[in-house]
Specification:
The complex is a heterodimer of chains A (314) and B (360).
Chain A (H helix, E strand, L loop, with lengths): L2 H30 L7 H19 L2 H25 L4 H20 L16 H4 L5 H4 L3 H19 L1 H11 L1 H6 L4 H27 L11 H11 L4 H24 L6 H5 L2 H20 L21
Helix pairs in contact in A: 1-7, 1-10, 1-11, 1-12, 2-3, 2-4, 2-10, 2-11, 3-4, 3-10, 7-8, 11-12, 11-14, 12-14
Chain B lengths: L5 H23 L3 E6 L9 H16 L3 E6 L8 H10 L2 E6 L5 H10 L4 E5 L8 E6 L1 H15 L4 E6 L4 H17 L4 E6 L6 H13 L4 E4 L5 H9 L2 E6 L10 E7 L2 H13 L6 E4 L6 E3 L8 H16 L9 E2 L5 E3 L7 H5 L8 E2 L3
Parallel strand pairs in B: 1-2, 1-3, 3-4, 4-5, 5-11, 6-7, 6-8, 7-15, 8-9, 9-10
Antiparallel strand pairs in B: 10-12, 13-14
Helix pairs in contact in B: 2-9, 3-4, 5-6, 5-10, 7-8
The chains are: A mainly alpha (314), B alpha/beta (360).
Chain lengths: 314, 360
């Protein structure tokens, strides 16, 4: 394998990883506040269509990304009102949001199918961005760098800021947080909106970067992988980054194993059916769950109030 | 003031009765319902989009006599059964199930509704009320293979497919054999992604094929995603199911267009006339079901001539890519020199020809 091949493959893996990393970071914050939002797939599709429509109308992909974030966040607000205001079941409501987002994005997208939108130019000069070696660092869409910057920012926010501490307090013990005067509902609204915005940007990566077009259900289940990723990561930012790249690597390995066929390299990959690689992200999630759960105290790293409605006694 | 006596009341009731009677007659003489089960979204700009164009052709030709309804995004598993049954219960007299994976589901529902006629696309199991129809996409693949074999510099071609079903195997084989006629050393790297429609996976698979040295990639999945990747990389590919040149004006060399309209209109007319019988139709270029989209200007004139010769050969019956000798991947001779594979052999093919590199 030549260095060019390895670099080109890493570029492919980063393309596979970025949307689930973005959506995973958003869901991580949402879950840290104690809310389980299973609607990631729907929010990603809403983001994908919002970003596409705004770009198609304004011819500006930067506005498109803002539109994608807004589209994802707005659709998450439906979920937020239901689970925070009306205390509906989070699992059922999240699933409903996924179905709703899929349907609504298809409806909005009817008149945008088959249209072409302007794409992000590369933010670095072509000498670097198009170079077969340097493109490893400089050849990506701005959204890739955005996702990578958001990882340490999210970690810093959760660990070192007062707002992050409050968010975690709300997720770990909502009644205590409430009793010392924090607005549990308000914090959760913000966390859900952030999760929706990030899922929306993740969705826009599909409709604006990988394949700049709109097609119904174009996220093809990546929202569910993002959900699995958060669990796999044990609600930790660093592990989320590692997990996202691991999942991306496995997705690439499936395709590589198939395309490599009877090629000379890596005979051990051919010995294993490609379906095995296709199933790996999910198998690894089950393994991670088992490991987390078997550490004695079940679900030690999951926020204690995850999925529970907040019903103040006063 | 109108006085309401018995006679006027009778008149009014009579008039109302007549009115409602007229309404019912109009309704009964109303339209024959025809249902469609679609694999993908009608906006996929590929396979399902082309079938939906066929459905619209029925509306245009027979709109006063028939009414068409459809269900899209139907999975090729047991969940298709209630959806097909639902179309039958809604009163459809003819139901098209538009993908290979609906075969047994179509037969199961057809057994429950002997008075409803079914048409299963790309399948091979027929009963009294289940017909099959197919299109010789592989004729189009032979044209694409001819162009790719001649234009590829590396001799390494990529083929992005969905599942190992006869339609895809035929496409891969026709493409490979035609490419080898132009370049005997040509090989085809095949990736089957286990989905008909998954733009991000199609895109990543295309990138992987390119990274492995393929300079032309043809797609047998349904989105224009792979073409957009080829456009970004400055390489060439082909559209699937429909002309996709809008998505990749430079990369799109040509496309196989599926034209279902004439067949659908003919079968709908047969239902209206009461002359429908269970048949097996397998049309191709000759009948106009498989059409090659306009050529990209990037194709040199001599390659255009070669591609046109294949098309002409299929139209007059002088060309068949499945003419022996044909060897399988292990080098075993599957078709003897001079023999032509029969339609039955084609419909159930499950082996790849020599030169196809695939682990799946």
């Amino acid at each position: 394998m030549s260095p060019e091949f390895i670099i080109a493959s890493i570029v492919t893996i980063i393309g596979l990883t970025t949307p689930i990393l973005l959506a995973g970071l958003g869901e991580l914050i949402t879950e840290k506040s104690g809310v389980l939002n299973l609607g990631v797939e729907g929010m990603m599709l809403m983001g994908a269509i919002s970003g596409f429509v705004i770009t198609a109308l304004t011819f500006n992909p930067w506005l498109g990304v803002i539109g994608a974030a807004a589209g994802g966040a707005l659709s998450s607000m439906l979920f937020a009102v239901l689970v925070l205001q009306l205390n509906s079941n989070q699992v059922a409501t999240g699933l409903a949001l996924s179905i709703f987002g899929t349907g609504l994005s298809s409806l909005i997208g009817v008149s945008f199918t088959g249209r072409i939108v302007p794409q992000f130019g590369s933010i670095f000069p072509d000498v670097l961005a198009k170079d077969p070696i340097w493109k490893l660092f400089f050849g990506y869409s701005p959204l890739v760098y955005f996702a990578l910057i958001m990882v340490p920012l999210t970690a810093w926010f959760l660990k070192s800021t007062r707002a992050g501490l409050i968010l975690r307090a709300v997720g770990e013990n909502d009644h205590s947080a409430h009793s010392i005067g924090y607005s549990v509902t308000g914090v959760r609204y913000a966390a859900i909106a952030f999760g929706g915005a990030m899922a929306g940007i993740g969705g826009a990566y599909f409709s604006m970067v990988i394949t700049p077009m709109w097609a119904e259900k174009m996220t093809a289940g990546r929202g569910w992988i993002a959900l699995a990723l958060v669990v796999f990561a044990g609600w930790r930012t660093g592990r989320l980054l590692a997990g996202a790249y691991f999942f991306g690597f496995l997705m690439w390995l499936e395709l590589f194993a198939k395309a490599n066929g009877f090629g000379p390299s890596l005979p051990f990959i051919q010995a294993i059916p490609s379906q095995f690689w296709a199933a790996m992200p999910y198998v690894m999630t089950v393994v991670a769950l088992t490991l987390i759960s078997s550490r004695g105290n079940v679900g030690a790293s999951a926020p204690a109030c995850l999925g529970k409605p907040f019903l103040p006694s006063t | 003031m109108t006085t309401l006596n018995r006679r006027s009341l009778m008149k009014a009731v009579g008039a109302a009765a007549t009115l409602s009677l007229v309404g019912t007659t109009a309704h009964a003489a109303d339209k024959v319902k025809i249902g469609f089960i679609f694999l993908g979204p009608i906006g996929d700009y590929g396979w399902t989009w082309a079938h939906n164009k066929g459905r619209e052709a029925i509306d245009a030709a027979l709109g006063d006599k028939v009414e068409t309804i459809y269900v899209e995004n139907v999975a090729e598993d047991a969940s298709a059964i209630p959806l097909i049954r639902d179309l039958a219960q809604q009163g459809c007299k003819l139901i098209f199930t538009c993908s290979y994976g609906y075969m047994d589901q179509t037969l199961a529902v057809a057994a429950e509704f002997p008075d409803v006629k079914f048409e299963h696309c790309t399948g091979f199991k027929r009963t009294d009320n289940v017909a099959t129809y197919n299109s010789k996409f592989h004729e189009g693949r032979a044209v694409l293979g001819t162009i790719a074999g001649k234009m590829s510099k590396s001799g390494s071609l990529g083929y992005l497919g969905s599942y190992k079903v006869p339609e895809v195997v035929l496409g891969v084989n026709a493409f490979t054999l035609a490419a080898q006629k132009q370049n005997p050393a040509a090989t085809v790297k095949l990736v089957l992604i286990d989905s008909w429609f998954d733009p991000p996976k199609e895109a990543a698979a295309t990138e992987t094929l390119i990274n492995l040295g393929c300079d032309i990639v043809t797609t047998h999945t349904d989105s224009p995603g792979p073409l957009q990747i080829l456009e970004q990389k400055g390489l060439y590919g082909f559209g699937q199911g429909a002309d996709m040149s809008a998505f990749a004006p430079t990369a799109h060399l040509t496309a196989i267009e599926d034209i279902w309209g004439p067949y659908y209109v003919q079968r709908a007319q047969a239902i209206v006339d009461g002359t429908w019988t269970s048949t097996d139709t397998w049309d191709g270029m000759k009948e106009g079901t498989v059409v090659i989209a306009p050529y990209n200007a990037a194709i040199p004139a001599d390659v255009v001539a070669l591609a046109d010769a294949v098309q002409a050969g299929y139209k007059d019956g002088s060309y068949d890519i499945f003419t022996g000798p044909i060897f399988d991947q292990d080098g075993v001779e599957k078709v003897k020199a001079g023999e032509i594979m029969t339609l039955e052999q084609l419909a159930t093919i499950d082996w790849f020809v020599k030169g196809v590199e695939s682990a799946s």
